[in-house]
Design goal:
Layout: H1 2-14, E1 18-20, H2 24-40, H3 48-59, E2 64-65, H4 67-71, H5 76-86
Antiparallel strand pairs: 1-2
Length: about 90
Amino acid sequence: MRAYIADIVRATREHAALQYGASPRASLGLMRAAQGMAGLNGRPFVLPDDVKQLAAPVLSHRLILKEEERLRGAETRQVVEDVISRIPVPVSE
């Protein structure tokens, strides 16, 4: 899951709509939130679905849109959802 979270955060830094992507601290926040979600669901492990469900709420406020994207009506939540849709979900073997 760490690599999956790192891939998501890295992709925000490379996204064309963003002036500033998520920081390393954001990746730690996403991991902690996913661990909390897993714990609340009675699991000692994080699932990709935990990360996907929490990515937008945790990361959205940490991103800065480019001015032209903001003027077009784009939102950081949409950018995070776009990133999530592009990153392959890890599969356990």
